Amino acid sequence: MLELKKxxxxxxxxxxxxxxxxxxxxxxxxxxxxxxxGGALALGLGNKVLMLENAIYSILSPEGYASILWKDSSRVKxxxxxxxxxxxxxxxxxxxxxxxxxxxxxxxxxxxKVIKSIKxxxxxxxxxxxxxxxxxxxxxxxxxxxxxxxxxxxx
Length: 155
Hints:
Layout: H1 9-22, E1 28-31, E2 34-35, E3 48-52, E4 56-57, H2 62-70, H3 76-83, H4 87-92, E5 98-100, H5 108-129, H6 134-146
Parallel strand pairs: 1-3, 2-4, 3-5
Helix pairs in contact: 2-3
């Protein structure tokens, strides 16, 4: 059981992520708009992380990044590029598993298409994982989380 402590938001986020990592059923996370702030870190613990094509996912907004790094929030576009927060960037870094395409037009029909795509991905993921044991589900989630992203070591 999750116990609330007085250590602040960082502790609450870390404790929540630890508990989510132990869940013995599949976790499907879907970023549909802007997944940001430290709380968005938990989305990365999904067995399957899906993201709409035009959504963004990051622990900090580009404005916040530019303000912290350069003390200049007007450099938001440059910050967004460096942050790699688009669906394609995150797919390439293995942070997300699939990009859900979005129609270019914005209307009720387009909305229905996106909803159908999301529903299909949820059904496909459940079908894919329903034969896995609880232990396999937890292990798959752990391995996925440990293997996401890429980095280089500077000498």
